[in-house]
Amino acid sequence: MSPSRLLLFGLLATFLVLVGVVFVFDLWPWGGAQVNLIGTMFVSDAGQSHGGFEYTASYYANLTIVDRKGVLNLALEIGLGDALEKHEYEVTDFSLSKDRITMRIEGADVVLVWVENDTVWDHEYDNYYIASWGSESLQNEIRGNISPNIFPGLVQHYYVELRLKPA
Question: Which 3 state secondary structure label does DSSP give 129?
Fold first, then answer.
């Protein structure tokens, strides 16, 4: 191979490596940048969104991510006491797209889906990422993937709904 072709090949290889590095670190939504999401988490012992026999609560939710891992902080906003035994949760494997968030909270898979038109709460949570589940929930109340078992202090049949949006 001639020296000029070798030089051209070397320059091209260097350019491709640099483009790859820029893509990985600057263009991925988690590529070293911090992601902040805020919202609420609602809990009900009724096992569904509306109703409640003895316990309901709403928590402020703050999720901070750096390099696909971070912390979910929950602080009691209002309710009939604080059922949570802890308020800080480890988050790993975070991924954000326009229609969903996937992550692991304390090792459990969680999926929040983008909800443009929230009919469960009469549009109060339009344009949020939401995950909800309850043992007595109607089909339209179950969105994404989440479990009360992730949060020590909550009982397995509780309804839990995590709602997040960019800060």
Answer: strand
Q: Are residues 27 and 79 in the same domain?
A: no
DSSP H helix total and E strand total for the chain? 1, 8
Same domain, 64 and 91: yes
Residue 33 confidence (pLDDT): 80
* Residues of the chain where predicted confidence (pLDDT) is lower than 70: 1-32, 52
* Cross-strand pairs, 109: 104
In degrees to the nearest 10, what's the CA dihedral of 149, 150, 153, 155?
-20
23/70 same-domain check:
no
Domain identity same for 2 and 57: no
Centre a 10 Å sphere on the Cβ of residue 66 and count the other Cβ atoms it contains.
14
Residue 66 domain boundaries:
34-166
The structure tokens listed for 85 are 């035994």
